[in-house]
Amino acid sequence: MSAPKKIRLDKIGKELVLQYPDSEFSLPAEYLRVYSPSAEVRGHGIGEGKLVSGKLHVGIDRIAAAGRYALQIFFDDGHDSGIYTWEYLRELCDQKERKWEDYLQRLAREGQGRDPDESPVKFIG
């Protein structure tokens, strides 16, 4: 998979804009953060992934090339260990709607939320 033609960090909009020859995509920082390819999020093996919640307000401080094959994204919550290959970034672009819906459903099942300032209420009884 080849690199995007252009990459733009929109700090105010909190998104990464990737332009390919056939299309342009905007990936929100929250989406990129919760789908980080890092071991912290994905785990070290199948089924070890961690649900990341409370990242509604996360932003991107900066991005850097990781060789000729990937980007490293530095989030304002201190997370910076994921290396986003060109192939994985395109997957996140192409499957954005499905992946986002999967994430929202998973949050709901786990009683978690996107906003770190909200605490889920569980009724006992």
Written account of the structure:
The protein is of the alpha+beta class and 125 residues long. It has one domain: NE0471 N-terminal domain-like (2-Layer Sandwich), CATH 3.30.2020. Helices cover 27% and strands 25% of the residues. The chain is built from 4 helices and 6 strands; from the N terminus they run E-E-E-H-H-E-E-E-H-H. It has helices spanning 29-34, 39-42, 86-94, 96-110; strands at 6-10, 15-19, 24-28, 60-66, 70-75, 83-85. A 3-stranded antiparallel β-sheet has the order 1-2-3. Strand 2 and strand 3 form a beta hairpin.
Write a concise synopsis of the structure shown:
With 125 residues, the chain is an alpha+beta fold.
Strand and helix layout:
Layout: E1 6-10, E2 15-19, E3 24-28, H1 29-34, H2 39-42, E4 60-66, E5 70-75, E6 83-85, H3 86-94, H4 96-110
Antiparallel strand pairs: 1-2, 2-3, 4-5, 5-6
Keywords: Iron, Metal-binding
Domain Gamma-butyrobetaine hydroxylase-like N-terminal: 7-90
GO molecular function: metal ion binding
Number of domains: 1
The CATH topology annotation reads as NE0471 N-terminal domain-like
Spans of at least 5 consecutive residues with low confidence? none
| CATH class category | Alpha Beta
Terminal CA distance: 53 Å
- What structural category characterises the helix and strand content? alpha+beta
Percent of residues in beta strands: 15-25%
Q: Which sequence of strands runs across the widest sheet? A: 1-2-3
Overall number of strands: 6
- Overall, the morphology is globular
CATH architecture: 2-Layer Sandwich
Work out the radius of gyration.
15 Å
